[in-house]
Amino acid sequence: AVCKADVPSELCGALRCANCGKSYHAITCLQMGKKTVRRAKRWKWRCDDCKVCFTCAKDTGEDIMLCYKCDKAFHPKCLGLASLPDSKWACGDCASHAEPNN
Question: Which of 28, 38, 82, 96 has its CA 20 to 30 A from that of 4?
């Protein structure tokens, strides 16, 4: 893993970037919750260095928002928004799919 911490993979929520192939301790080092890691594993997750807008697939740049539930990146303009939200934001996929609390 990128952080080199000695943490068993079953405890750290290991994620591998679909673009560069680097592995990350998602729970312990990236501070993601278990549900976020579970959701991120359902799609081709990208690390912060490789992250692109999920809608247009272009570099994220300054104006970017991350879904707090799955870590997908989006440009506000790609979603028809004038600016970045002021609080936690969930993408359409996550907002429309409830998940059990276990």
Answer: 38
